[in-house]
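Issue: copy button drops trailing tokens. Both records pasted manually instead:
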Amino acid sequence: MTTPGMGNNRPPSSKDEIKVKRRSYLLLAMFCVAGCKENTDSLPAGTENSFATNSTETYKPDAAQSFGDFSFSIPKGWTAVPPDREKTKAMLLLDGTDGQNAKAMIKIDVGMPAAPTARQLAESFAKSVGGNVSSDALDFDGEEAVVATTSSNDLGTPRNMIIVYRDGKAYLLMAGATEGVDIGDAVSHIRSSWKWKQATN
């Protein structure tokens, strides 16, 4: 089978592999926002919630930044970069200038829901990558969020997928990291500082 974007006769280089991983990450986001179908298969309760309010983060929140109809403060050490797709409303990198050399990436995509509930969408994603869905929900400024986790240690597949349904839209927070890089505190920081923009009449 030919790897997308590569010729049949040329062995893949490390740069090719990085590009394929990044492409896979973006395709997963597109799949979950626009292509997931209803999936009611039961899955294990999931792994322990690593984004609870008792996180070990110690840095103070910076001023919140707006990303359309939501805002949050950028975690320490992370940098906000221009989104690479229209559906991506926020994109953060850790120790890197783009998705090819960063140690970790957090993206937030917004689109029309592709499953009746956030939990069904999370289960569909988890099933496709061998992950789990937590039985505990998170609170994002008053809205319930469902968490799916995987054992991924590269940017090809999100390690954490957090899904919120609000006002007819699906919000997907996807966090991926390379091996040995912890992203729990960063995700907890975003969750605790998250604010929804209030609708104006």
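Record 2 (pasted manually too):
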Amino acid sequence: MENLRMLLGSLVALTLLFSVVSTVNPGYFAGLRAYADYAEKNDERSNQEDHNGANLVQTLGDHSEVAIKTGDNGAVLGVRVQGGDLQNGTHSFEFNCTSPLVSKNFSNGLVVEGGQGEFREGLALANGTYSGCEFNVGNLSASFPSFTVQIIQDDGQEKEDQQNDSNNGQLNNKNDDQQNDVDDHVKEKRKEKSERIASTLTGSAIHERHRKAHAESPGVYAPNSNFTLTANGTAMNNGTKADSEVNMHLAVWKSNRAIVLLDVLGGTVDVGNQSYKVLIGYGVYSANHDAVKIASLAVDKDGNVMKLELRGSAIDEESQLPKDSGSVNLMFEGSTDAWNSKLGDWKLELEGTLTS
């Protein structure tokens, strides 16, 4: 009897529950579902932002800050000047990284009034990991830890791309030959551009143009300071090995606490019995990491233009680029993560000295 009363009580409770539910607007449940979906997507987005994003805030002067914020849309640089750390007026500033090589100049980008000023702009950095990055404005500077840029498309764009990939997949075989033609055309255009630069410009002319520009922040390395690079070692190309030697003349045109910018004035590079004349190029020396990167154009006796790229690091970690007279010993590796030391298809492994 007791069990029967409990069963009847349960039936009454269920009847009341269903009667209440039947009076609720069906949209209420749709709203709950939509809210749940929204919350779930927000959680996923938040987790993704936490994974892909970073907010690196560094002290600048006594009261100011500079920050790099990364997220799905790339990297953004933000500057906030306070407490009179910079004089009132318009200031140019620089953002530089050593790996991969980045050098961005913002002319008259920061306006300070009443001891305060703000700046915010995207850095337009490609996907990858960046290290050795510094910010410099006036006599203020800040260094950043390594950070990663990972630009992620939204779901709609990804679905559209997937659909396009599916449609285009049916045409891949047909388009392969066309793509090869495009690649050959691009290579030919690049070759023509290199030949045009090599035939119409000289390193001395470029340096004179830089020198006359009166760099706003010449730094401790005086413009027009001269350096000579001498390096010897081996060159490798598909199993073929040859002796190699590089002699190059460079001159400073601008510097700050982080980097020294140099123009390549000329020189020679030898691989085996083949000799090339170095015509034009640029170099960047990282004062903090004691490493140098050089990109230049060289030409052989028949007029064929080759790209010469060098990446060297100081053999002695305590070495510094001399300001007046002296030298720093460097090791140039044939292959690194971000940069190869090479002449055309020849990978270069050299040891040398950069002398002032």
